[in-house]
Amino acid sequence: MRGSKLTVSRGWVGHKGPYGKNLSWTHPDYAGVTVLHCGHPTALQPYYIKGFGWQGGGAGVATFRALKQAQWWVERGGLKLGSERAEGELYREMIDIEQGRVTL
Known about the structure:
- The structure is a single chain.
- The protein has 2 helices and 5 strands.
- It is of the alpha+beta class.
- The protein has one domain.
- It has a 5-stranded antiparallel sheet with strand order 1-2-3-4-5, with helices on one face.
- The model has no long low-confidence stretch (mean pLDDT about 80).
């Protein structure tokens, strides 16, 4: 995402799909978690997460416009929160950071 103020660690590794582009990303510090791209070239929110027993993707599930957003969500523990309210607060924090309303 251009101009994103979110910061993620450098350990993310991309894994190529059948056409030579990265379709999934993993991080050694987050075993069992994968950030995936849905594969649709014009999707508005193509990134989703699988791991920690949480299966993303599909209607009504957390999806992200940018790879960095999904990675940030994993690093902030978004998959372990266990409540819609906590997830909503984390999502609002992410948007506030990206829009410059919060300084890190």
